Amino acid sequence: MSSYPEQITHCVSQLKQLLTEAGIESEIASFVILGSGLNAVVDDFEILAEINYSQIIGLPTPTTPSHQGKFTVVKMGEQHTIFCQGRFHLYEGHSAQSAAILVFILKELGATQMVVTNAAGALNADYQPGDVVLINDHINMTGHNPLLGLELSFTNIFADMSNAYDETLRNRANKAAIRNNITAHSGTYAAVLGPSLETSAERRMLRSFGADIVGMSTAMEVIAASSCNISVLGISAVTNMATGGVDQQADTIEDVLNNAAMAANGIRKIICEILL
Ligand code: HPA
Questions:
Q1: How many CA atoms lie within 13 A of 128 on its CB side?
Q2: Of 91, 213, 256, which is best to mutate to test ligand 1, by the most ligand atoms within 8 angstroms of its C-beta?
Q3: pTM of the predicted model as reported, rounded to 2 decimal places
Q4: Mean pLDDT throughout 160-186?
């Protein structure tokens, strides 16, 4: 069995080869990780190539509904951007390093900027399903960290996380939201392990800790990005209310996917303005 650094090197060389075969030679400066129900974000971009994760030996396959498992390369102005349609969650049984592998692969392809998206429940009662949240910080409640025991030449395991979500990108995203009449909050994301949803008491506790939204992804990828100097913009689609109050409704995956689809159009507009 190969080591994690060997696994990354092997995935990178295969992906480079597949990109070359698709006529894409230039470096990939930016990439986007699409969360649950957010596949529609790539609609309307000029798609240059689609590469399935299954074409790359050593890359896991996502098992979550709506996570397609492919790299979609689009043209944005003069630049190429890769959309990772599907990610690897801890709750699928993936290790923290598997959950972060897309970030290290894209770093090796030259990326300096990541937009990470997700579906999240609203702990903050002022938010509504379908709203967009520009993540200003996170609280990692998963108990996992992809940098644990990591020996990669281009990463700093003592990554500074005090400004993990780039303020300049957030301000630009906020202006894009205002220009496009999109309701976008600035909020803190609590990352939990899942896959069961939180109890109402857990949700009230997360709110009291200062979190506005809760979800089961993103933190591993953002820690990985911080360890190798990739600037991060984090965007959440609010898919359900998760206040844990007396009016707390049961959540369904159908509601999560439908409400994420409602937010997808706004998220696409914001990404377009940030990356163009
Ligand atoms: N909790 C955790 N993860 C989620 C939620 C939630 O309420 N909604 C979407 N992803």
A1: 7
A2: 256
A3: 0.95
A4: 96
